Amino acid sequence: MTKKRASNEARSPDGSMCECNPCSAYNVEAILNIDERGQMVLPKEVREKAGIKTGTKLALISWEKEGSICCLALIKAEDLSGMVKEVLEPLIHKGD
């Protein structure tokens, strides 16, 4: 069976189609420290691997549990519009 590609799929830094989804494997890439100004640094290796350069805009996505934010994710803003429905909708409807 051939997997049908949606026109709104995101692309990886190398230009290939991004296959990530809420059920895919994940990696802990780094542990970040927040400084007194609320800033953090993404390690160079992570930025290079993700294709994040100066001026790249990232969307901060949060998930709430019992009124508090429990999880945060960063998604390139340019990829967000195409990923919202495919990535976030299953998480929203998971408990239905």
Write structural notes for this entry.
This protein is an alpha+beta fold and 96 residues long. It has a domain at 44-92. 24% of the residues lie in helices and 18% in strands. It contains two helices and two strands. It has helices at 44-50, 77-92, and strands at 58-65, 68-76. A hairpin with a 2-residue loop joins β1 (58-65) and β2 (68-76). It is globular, with a radius of gyration of 15 Å. InterPro entries: SpoVT-AbrB_dom (IPR007159), SpoVT-AbrB_sf (IPR037914). Residues 32-79 form the SpoVT-AbrB domain. It comes from Methanomethylovorans hollandica (strain DSM 15978 / NBRC 107637 / DMS1).
The whole-number mean of residue pLDDT values reads 75
Shape: globular
Q: Please estimate the helix content.
A: 10-25%
Give the C-alpha Rg.
Answer: 15 Å
Structural class: alpha+beta
N-to-C terminal Cα separation, in Å?
A: 29 Å
- How many individual β-strands? 2
Strand arrangement across the biggest beta sheet: 1-2
Strand content: 15-25%
Largest sheet, described in full?
2 strands, antiparallel
Helix/strand order, N-terminal first:
HEEH
Discrete helix count: 2
Uncertain ranges: 1-9
Features:
96 residues; alpha+beta; 2 helices; 2 strands; 18% strand; disordered N terminus; DNA binding; SpoVT-AbrB_dom
